Amino acid sequence: MLALKKMNFIIVIPVYSRPFCLKRLTECVVLSANYKSLNNKCKYHLCFSVDPHSDLNITKEILKIIDKVEWNLGEKKVIEHEKHLGLFKNILFCGSLSKNYDACIVLESDLILSPFCLDYIYESHQFFNQDSNIAGISLYSYQYSETNNGSFPFTPVNEGCDNYFLRFPSSWGQMWNYRQWSEFETWLDNNYEETFIDQRLPANVYKWSPQSWKKQFCRYLVDTSKYFVYPHISLTSNTGEVGVHYLKTSDKKKVPLLLGQKYWFFKSFKDINILYDQFFHPQVINYINENSVHVTYNFKSSYFLAEEKYLINSFVLAHNSNTTDVNDCSDNNTNLSSEKGITSHKQWKAIFPQEKGADYERELIDLFLARFSSKHLVSHLKQRFLSKLMIKLKEIIVTIKPFFHDK
Which domain holds residue 335? Predict the structure, then answer.
């Protein structure tokens, strides 16, 4: 009987500065080798892509740390680049290594890892490797969206599985197979722009540094309608320390890690009900009926997906067609739009069976709770209350103003 060929993964660490971060990360990687349960199924090779620093002492210290790393799950490689690459080119180099392996895992030095990350790497690769809808697999799981500079909490709906799909690339621990990476490289060769304005992306994203590979990948995901796979519980956490592209520390990137052995249960792209777009907004695919009517909840942006059949939106939309206000926009300011404008109340009820009133308000709250924290919801309701109060005050002022003029 022929023995099955072992899977070969390569873990690549692009490094330029911050030796103290690199030391911590290598300790995490070595620790994960002790918790790997799939000993006979795959090899994990370890590679360091060293971008030379202008301060030679920093590069020397980095090489000393790498030299002390003991690795027994595969080959250890050190690639010292002769000229400074910068983050963008270094990540492109790391991704290109996927050509000679089953998959490439990229870990930047400001990360810490769950001891159980290697099992997740193997299991998620096995499940999603052939899916053409997938452009990469994340080891990180968001608690704050990266839109609006990370000011909004993000809690994806758990559909009874360990994953969700987000049209936003992961940069805090991610995996690509060669097909996924080569498709991005081909797109990049034909579409690269150092600086650009793309209204399909969050404004803070397309304003990122030209050294950001991530904003290019985000545009690629939108152009190709592909997604990243994300775990509900994170296998990496970002320490939020100061670096070349971060001038101050941040705690919002720090997330809880998986700290126990786990059986992974994934759902495929076709079996999931909710996808998340590049604004971290949920798109309900299979929620209403078997015909898969596509609804997008858009509570925090004026961006409008014109190709979507339905849009539940917190903004009044400019539209060429004649529109019908579903729920008295001055009251709720929440509309349901279609290809021909705002739909009728009858069509609204096809999605929300409850009558307008208290039940409608309850379902609106449920939608917010599926997307935002209760703290964010309270802030929203308070703002709405104050807005209505101001309208009433203005009405009172208009009513009593003539009496003061008479005096």
Answer: 282-371
